[in-house]
Amino acid sequence: MVKAAITTPAATNPFIPFPFVVMSRRRETRDTVTLRLRPLRNVRLLAQPGQFMMLSVIGVGEVPISVSGLPRRPGELEHTIRAVGSVTRHLVALRPGDYIGVRGPFGTSWPLQLAHGQDVLLIAGGLGFAPLRSALLSILRERWRYRQVIALYGARSPTDLLYRRDLSRWQQRPDLILRMTVDHPDQYWRGQVGVVPNLIRQVAAFFEPANTIAMICGPEIMMRFTIRELQKHGVPDEHIFLSLERNMQCAIGLCGHCQLGPFFLCKDGPVLPYSRLAPFSEIREF
Amino acid sequence: MSDRELEEFLAVHPFTADLDENQRALLAKQARLAHYQPDEYLIQEGRPANAFYLIVQGLVSIELFVPGHGPRPLQTVEGGSAVGWSWMLAPSRWEFDARALERTTAVVFDAERLRALLLEDCCLGLRLVQRLLFLVTERLRAARLQLLDLYGPPRER
Question: What residue stretches are annotated with the FAD-binding FR-type domain (chain A) (predicted)?
């Protein structure tokens, strides 16, 4: 029997989306869902944690969405999407069996190999936990490669926490330090209240700054204050990695919509070390 | 608990760790160790601000009681931090509640004796006021960031 050839993006036009089908849909919060996708054809779009795909709805449009999970089977993709505009509202409304267009993967990934043998700090705010979840899952799958692993996560309120099933499972792990905080607690919340940078101080005794790789994703103001806190603790700029969100459209560095200084964030980013971004941190919309 | 044991707590607490040994010894004389059960109040709004707390371990909620809604937590403070500066300024009344969320241990200073000590030893006074100012700045920064509602609904795409 002759096996069907596997199509890879390199062999195709990067502007043409592949058809995928929604396999499952999990509601995370009031306006956010996680979709698991399977290719209709024999294609493998192998995305690394930190990279993004362009997801499209026919007749509506296309948006960049980071991968938020690891594939359970080759070729599968997992994305967490928040209903913000017209395209994302359509994506969030998709049901198992619905079709979707996918092109990618695009951009740079989290520096997981660089973090081998190092302490790892994953710091997420809000929906920024989605791209970091894929990194955390990857790290936990090969936990032995890393020293201390610390995940810090801030959300608006307890009902805005993503991946609650994962969080309660991770809280039981002796090989992971997980701290969460919310800005606006409800009456049932018994955990921490406050901003994410405050959590860094609490775990400072558990990581060696010079041997730590920090990966941050969240609103840019949260990332700015987080960077300052990491710097205060002595984490070198070249060990601090950020994922920046911009208006990615072509996703291959042609259109320039996502330009920041000399970088096209769709191809030079979205993940970049702060040491490269620092000269441009004076730009108001860093 | 002896002064010597309290000094040992002060030697490792971030608020006092880098003071001189003599300064820590002076502070230890004004202090006692206290334990709080979950939901026990360290501080209650409106009451005289007669103490200063260094949290050794546990979790404390800084909050306001809203009639009809109950306690509304604004921020939590964990081991290694400090609670309460209203004792520094007239009329020395607490402006917020501080409630233990889990079993909490704190070094508690008597405010009146602490004020007297800081006036007597201006060098120690300045160092403690600098630390308190740092704490106030940190809390203000955190409160400002919370006000921004950073994780709220983003703009439409």
Answer: 15-112
